[in-house]
Amino acid sequence: MSAWASFFDTNVKEFRSSVRTPTDRDADMTESTAPTGVTDPPPDAAPTYDGVLSRSLGVGGNVLITLSGISPASSVFILGGAALAVFGTGVFWGFAIAGVISILIAFCYAELASRHPVAGGDYSLVSRTLGPACGVAVFFVSLVTLPLIVAIFALGVADYLGVAIGGLDPVWTALVVVVLATGTACLNIRANAWVTGAFLFVEMAALGLLTVLGLVHLERPIGDLLNPQAIDAATGGLAPLGIAGLVLAVTQGIFSFNGYGGAVYFAEETKDVRRSIARAVLWSAGVTIAAEIIPLAAIMLGTGSLPDLFSAALPVEAFLEERAGHAVTVFVLVSVALAIINAIIAIALQSGRLLFAAARDQALPAALATPLVRVSDSTKMPWVATIVMGILALLGCLVPLDVLLNATGSTLAFSYGFIALAAIVMRRRATGSENGYRMPWWPLPPALALLAIGAIFVIGVLDPAQWLSLGIAVGIIATGFAYYFGYLRSRSGTHLLLLDVGDEEA
To answer: How far apart are CA 359 and CA 33, in angstroms?
Structure first.
């Protein structure tokens, strides 16, 4: 880990020594290729972008949009239900350990974002810490996965709306949902906070109902959850869950909790950002973990039969039918459909800011970057970039679902690995005078996170079923590096500026 940190530290120092101001570094760059919002700084000041987005979100508004993108209800019903069927009561330990790992990663996000509160999410943080080559690789990961995740979510809407509206075609339903979500994402950010907040209230109420139904019909003590057991395919009864199964349950939990880093996408729209953005990340992570573990535990404690629950095709829906009846189940499943739509809106918001930030940094050719940095005068939203990402999501809806799942399955661990490395490198370069959040228990959070991510990679390499997904993730990252070194690095007119955003509140 120390060798990698030293490599990135040296690489970034060399890059920054050649990038002082737009005038110093890009004397040959014409005015037409300069990104929107770059100002000429005083000789002794670091160059910055002008803030062109609306800095109108408080911590609460940021958290509402971020939680909407995570969609805890969708995670419980879809990912949590699948985990119950495979890992049984091992879900409790698996998701609890995953919660600890997620908090460690959240610490890294919080510290990085408080130092570099720039729209663009992982791309912006990694670029400004590990250097532009790694940043472009992470940009390619997000550029591919965000619209594909929107497509995956949208293709699942018909399954849940279908309990109330029969005959829905999954593809056409997905296309309509993506168009509506993209249009909503082009509205004012505060309007989006209200819209997503209303939807979020509905899905959190559904999770609250699951919790109450489980706790008022307790069938077993909580101690039963501490003994990991899953369905034995041979006997149909419960059998101890092995270490390998428990580790896989942890990876499922990490994926289920993913999305709290999405708070960083809205850094340029968050008030008092250097203090607020860390709180937004940590609150989003904490609420997500609690909102998923508690209902899942309540379901296992309150079901009449654990073997019947784990053997059901849809365990969470089966529990609802058992304890609340069909009418309530239909209502909750429609609520889950709304939660999925809400998540699509929130991810569309993130996607637009990713492309906007990369275009402003000149990580794209000028012909592409110029329209993508346009911001609406009325809504202060990067509407062109948002629409372009929406079009990519529409195209993703036409791709077979298994292809989409393979294309997004292993990218999360790579992204988390870059974030943990970035946190280590940034702290190594710190002088002690920087403002912003500093994670507790340094250097344990990034170090333990890297160990956990390494274990996930080892499991993936040993499991032939994951080779295709891993190969796609490696291919995306390799393409990003090839694009940087083969095209971007040598072109001053399209070379990354990697400036932070100038604002009196930043």
So the answer is: 11
